[in-house]
Amino acid sequence: MKHLAEIVNSFSNKRIVVIGDLIADQFIYGEISRVSREAPVFILRHEHTETTPGGAGNCAMNLAALGAQVKLISVLGDDETGRTLQDKLRAARIDCADLFVSSEQRTTTKVRVLAGQIHSTRQQVIRIDYDHEPGLAAKLKQSLKAAAAEVTNGADGVIVSDYNYGVADPEIGAVVRDATQQKRIPILVDSRFRLSSFPGFTSATPNEDEVEELLGEKHVDRVALELAAQKLRQQLRYEALLVTRGGHGMTLVEDGAAPLHIEAVGSKQPVDVTGAGDTVIATYTLALAAGASFAEAAQLANLAGGIVVSKRGTATVSADEILSPMAQVSNA
Question: What's the mean pLDDT in 25-34?
C-alpha cells in the first residue's frame, strides 16, 4: 500500500495527452408532477440541467482531477454546448490549445432525462443523442494529424479515446504510434467499436462483452476469459490487456505473466456507471506513466472505478479519494 500511495502522490508530475472524441453529457433533472392528458406519459417539472465533458473530455477531466497535467486534442462544434465544454475544460486547467472548433460540426451531445417523485432518487428514463455529421473536413483532419504527431513533446503517456465520432480513427492511431515509436512511454487505447483497428499499442481496457465481440466467441468461465484475453492481446500485439468486468472486477493479462484477477471494490450495485471506463483508463495510464507495473496500475484503476460508480452522472475521482481507503487499510 505504501508503494501504491507513492505512485499516486507522483501523479502531479506527469503530463498526459488525450486524443479523441469529445462528447457533451447533459443531464436534465425533473420532478414528476402529474400524468399528461395528451398521452399516457409523466409531465416533469424541470429542476436543473447539468452539462459535463464526456468521452475523451471525461477522460481528460479524470486525469486533471488526479493531479496530472493534461493536453486534449479533439474537435468541438461552434455552438453553445461546445463553448460550455470549453469553459469547463479550461476551468479544470486542461490544455485546450489543440481543441479545434469547427462551424461545420455539431458538438456531439447525449441528453439523459432523470425523473422522480419529490423525495425520491432521480432515475434515468430516456436518453437522446445528438450526433454530428459523420466525417471530418480534410483540412480539419490534417490539423488533428499534425497535433497528434507532436504528442510526444514532453508527454509521459498518451490515451486514444475512440467513440467512433471521427477524431480518434485508425489513421490518427497510426500517427500516434509512429510518433511514439522511439520513446518508451505508455500509449493506451479505448475503442468501443474497433479495437482491432488499433494494433501495436501498450495496452487497452475493453470490457468483457467487447472481448467476446472482437473474437466472435463466448467465454463461459474464468479460464475461458483468460484464454480469450490472451488471444486478443497477442493478436493486437499489446504488452498487456486489462479486461473490465463490472461487479466481477477486472482481469489483467500480460506477456510473460500469469493472469491476474482483481475483485471489485465498493458496492456490487453501482449507482451510475456513466463514464466509468474513462476513469479506469485515465487512472491506469497515469499509473503506468508514473512507473507502476501493469498489476499495480490495474489495482489503482480498479479502486478508482469502484469509487466513481458510487457517484451520479459523469463524475471524476481525485488522488485523495484513492489515497483515503489505502490509508485505512494500512492503518488497520
Answer: 94
Residue 155 makes CB contacts below 8 A (sequence gap 6+) with: 15, 16, 17, 71, 185
Flag whether pLDDT at 199 surpasses 70: yes
- In this predicted model, which residue has the larger pLDDT, 142 or 266? 142
Distance of CA 316 to the CA centre of its chain: 10
Answer whether residue 268 shows pLDDT above 60: no
Q: Give the whole-angstrom CA distance, residue 319 versus residue 67.
A: 7
* 131 three-state secondary structure: coil
Instruction: Tell me if residue 278 is catalytic.
Output: yes
Residue 220: count other Cβ atoms within 10 Å of its Cβ.
7
Banded pLDDT at 272 (limits 50, 70, 90): low
> Which DSSP category does 182 fall into?
T
Q: Which of 95, 98, 169, 278 is catalytic?
A: 278
Give the separation between CA 176 and CA 125, rounded to whole angstroms. Answer: 39
Annotation: CATH topology of 2-23+56-107+133-331: UDP-N-acetylmuramoyl-L-alanine:D-glutamate ligase (3.40.1190)
